[in-house]
């Protein structure tokens, strides 16, 4: 019985990690990467902040939702360690979205404040950190999946 | 927490983030005692010791006044920095020397150790008492020195100028200073014979130097001729005085000071100083000679400048009465004479003597060698040597000098001050005294000398100046200072820019700029040129602070790129001469306006387009603003700025939106009503905005009819959002200005708002909510408008809450302006009605710039951090301003990204590109130049307290919106606490029991307290949310002058105006009553007081006010008969009435918006408004000034 459970769990994990790898992971780092590039463009004057915010804002919610989705998957698979690693980011996302400026549409970035050096620097730093986190976790998931596949 | 970036949790960190220092702890600021000054000495000393090694730098130090006065903007590029640095440091170093006078022997040792220049620490009392006794001994020798040095100036200029001319002939450089004198001596014949020879030398200067040169020429001539009258005896000493200019002065004074010391103590010092002087003297030569190979013009200039300043500087120091120096600067001859008089010398010297002196100066080598290892005797020997050959004159000299020296300039300024501070205190006086005497800025003279004088805030109760607080003058040489941008348009919070971010953090003061770029100017050079010369890499406009490497190339002062001078620029249209690029108006004025070519247009310049969006709901009609508006418009229709293409249109709205077809040819205006407010459309897109001139009759008809069209309306709703959407659609093809008049909360359609204010929370001391917008509708609209070059100006005339916090967004982000008239009613509130009328007059007729962008550039290493004001930030340094108006101010926070050690000057340039109402594309450029300093005390010395407070106010507004009001208030208090604590920790031996501020910051706590009691930030006093938000909006968008009046009003007693201390303006006599403290203790029942709050004047009449005053000025027989609502002073033919009226109108003329006068009697309800402005008094909810100080002190001690 216990054995079967173990199989099931591992299978789940593999499934979850497979899902992550196939659709989410590459996409999320890309989104983070995109944001970094976007903020850099802003900094170096290439783009109007209104346009930039208009392109960035629609990407924010999907990213958050996908991340939340993975968290849910990890929860289902009872992957406590992975979940624990992701919880802080999830909490941060929730806080970040709660404290966003007054906006009618979805998104985080307000073109009137984004050019403030502090905020721009913060957003950029946030982007780098998240990129690093997503990349690391991508390889960790990959490793986890291969490990599970090999060991089963 | 909408902006997570750097909004730290409240108390402790709040301040840190607030003050530019960032998170750095305040401990960090604790510099070891007097370490700062000592550090500065370091370089100097080392230079002395390794003259050859530092040879190239020496000039900087030496050149003090030489560069000071005139640092050749166009001097050799590579030298530029050095020279600038020179211009600063020397003043710095030499100045302290002045102070030496007070030092006592015992201290001397210390001082020497660190540096002779700083030796002046000892207490004044001691110094002064000592002087008579000790001075007698040493006086003989020192007097000589002083004489020599002061007079050396003359010689110097000869020598320097000579050297400049000679230099190209292979004049020896640093290693042989000694040779110098000889050479110069040899050259003397050429140069020294006053007018002609000098002329020759300066002739060179002229070619290189711009307009001022002419003046200088005269001056120098004058000097040289003057110098002939200098007594022999004096001239003899000249050799020693080889040192140029500043060093001259300083050493002269230092020497005098030495009189007060015992011989042993002072001798080495003097030597040192002399030595320093010696170095200095030779240094200018260096610099000159070094410059020469690169740029002849530069060399010439510097030489000339050296002359100028050298001549000037002695005057004040000799005459030793600082107040006279202004006159000195203006008429150097006079000053010179003064100096001569004071030294009571009579004989006249021949230039030949000078010549000899110069030769004598050849003895300098000895001194030189001595310098590195200061041995007292050689220099003494030298002095005597120098003087002996011409043995005469000494006896006569001494008394003369003694007479001259005693009234020392420094002494009176800080009697009884803490000795520990003297070196700061005095050092500064010296600098500024010199610099002001050089710079000819007589106004600041009294102010700046003591910018570092410690002020014990808890003891000194009268810290307010007599008249308004002047802006500090950057410590630049006089020439640069003359060229620098007016502080009215461009101000920096720190006029001495710290070298590194770490130093800035230590100072705990914010670094930023306050701009008033589109200010109404009486004089503005407008340049029409097909090519506008700009730096090729950073696009900086050519400005007075660039350096010309040669005739063909100039070096950008912001990015240091070397650019070519275009052919066209070689021709000067002003003088119609060729080959003098440095005399072009662009290079002679720091504020210029270019008429731009088509390169600067994205589209053809737009016409002036004005659209009025008027609320005509029941509420609006009831308030009756329409009558005033239409009346004003009718009166000013012809004065609206614009050309033949000017267009105008009207939209009115209640629950529907009404358009007016004013197409030419109609018999009368046609009203078109659109009731579909959810999907607004333009009924006839073409004929709603019409040409002002073609349809003028129709427009007048409409304006006449409008006030009565809606008299019986029952519509109470207001569909502001849809009306704005319609206005945007109407304006988007052209761009222009939308003026919105709103009287209530928008209640229909898009952008509808709900009342968010809880009246019970008005006086809450805890949380003030709803300072931010409730919806982003108005912000988005503003951004759309901004994108279409349309600005939205909001006039809010409401008696109830109208959520200004949300509505204001429409103006904030479209670069509009906001006017708010609380409880406006045409007949019930005549003061507001009058204010609206006056504001409208100004609003309709003032200049306007369309489709504008403003870019702020600064020297490499500095970066712009945050902008404050009404605009949309389009990129890191570019502001998009759909409209720009002359009453708009901006603030910028800056940070230092790279250390500025390799430069001694930083520049800021604001370029405002706009379309004038005549359809011309123009660029207005302001350039500000400031020195860089490396010590904390210098940073404090250069602090501009008004600018600091205004910038802090802007930051506090941001903070209170993004975080909370309490945070903002804490941050304000912490800003004072941190900066004063940092200052007190720099000054060693300080008694912790006292609250000490540098003189430059003595008003800081007062202003911060005023800010805390300002409507925007006060708590505990009932404040309507809209009032608060409006005050915040004003803080963000008002220029500094207006903002300061808002924060800290001026109070005058006007019942006893006399003709004393009056000024004359346009044939009118304007009395100048002194400023009074904002405290009820100053109000007497017998008096009448005028409070100038910027936008409103309160005239408070005491109960027992003199009946004559009431009769003459107010036109009523006695106090009881003065009406409650009085806003005008009658024209009574009595002297007191005339004086009062001329004073008030003079105050009014000084600002664009003419304020309303409100007469207040004791029982008047407006009394509370008046008394709320008495910020030094205690209120139920807030500290008195004294309590506030104690509170600060407590926090510092913590």
Largest β-sheet summary of chain A: none
* Strand percentage of chain A: under 5%
Classify the helix fraction of chain B into a percent range.
40-55%
Q: Stretches of chain A where pLDDT falls below 50 for ≥5 residues?
A: 1-26
Structure, described:
The complex is a heterodimer of chains A (152) and B (1198). Chain A contains 4 helices and no strands. Residues 1-26 of chain A have low confidence and may be disordered. Chain A is 82% helix and 0% strand. Chain B is 45% helix and 14% strand. In chain B, the strands form 8 sheets. In chain B, strands 3, 5, 11, 20, 22, 23, 25 and 26 form an 8-stranded mixed β-sheet that branches. The longest helix of chain B is centred in the N-terminal third of the chain and has 44 residues, at 124-167. The interface between A and B is medium-sized, with 25 and 29 residues.
Q: SSE layout and pairings?
A:
The complex is a heterodimer of chains A (152) and B (1198).
Chain A: H1 2-43, H2 49-76, H3 80-98, H4 117-151
Helix pairs in contact in A: 1-2, 1-4, 2-3
Chain B: H1 11-18, H2 35-49, H3 58-62, H4 64-70, H5 77-99, H6 105-114, H7 124-167, H8 179-192, H9 194-208, H10 212-229, H11 232-237, H12 245-259, H13 263-294, H14 296-312, H15 314-319, H16 325-330, H17 332-343, H18 351-361, H19 364-372, H20 376-387, H21 394-404, H22 410-413, H23 422-439, H24 442-445, E1 454-456, H25 478-483, E2 490-492, E3 497-498, H26 501-507, E4 512-515, E5 526-528, E6 547-550, E7 553-555, E8 562-564, E9 571-572, E10 577-578, H27 585-588, E11 591-595, E12 609-615, H28 618-623, H29 625-636, E13 647-653, E14 657-661, E15 670-674, E16 690-691, H30 696-709, H31 720-731, E17 736-742, H32 777-787, E18 790-796, H33 804-807, H34 809-812, E19 818-820, H35 830-845, E20 849-858, E21 862-868, E22 872-875, E23 878-884, E24 890-896, E25 905-916, E26 921-933, H36 936-941, H37 945-962, H38 965-986, E27 996-998, H39 1004-1012, H40 1025-1037, H41 1040-1047, E28 1050-1053, E29 1063-1065, E30 1068-1070, E31 1075-1076, E32 1088-1092, E33 1096-1101, H42 1107-1114, H43 1135-1149, E34 1156-1160, H44 1167-1172, H45 1185-1197
Helix pairs in contact in B: 1-38, 4-5, 4-14, 5-12, 5-13, 5-23, 6-13, 7-8, 7-9, 7-12, 7-13, 7-14, 7-21, 8-9, 8-18, 9-10, 9-14, 10-14, 10-17, 12-13, 12-14, 13-14, 13-19, 13-20, 19-20, 29-30, 29-35, 31-32, 37-38, 37-39, 37-40, 38-39, 38-45, 42-43
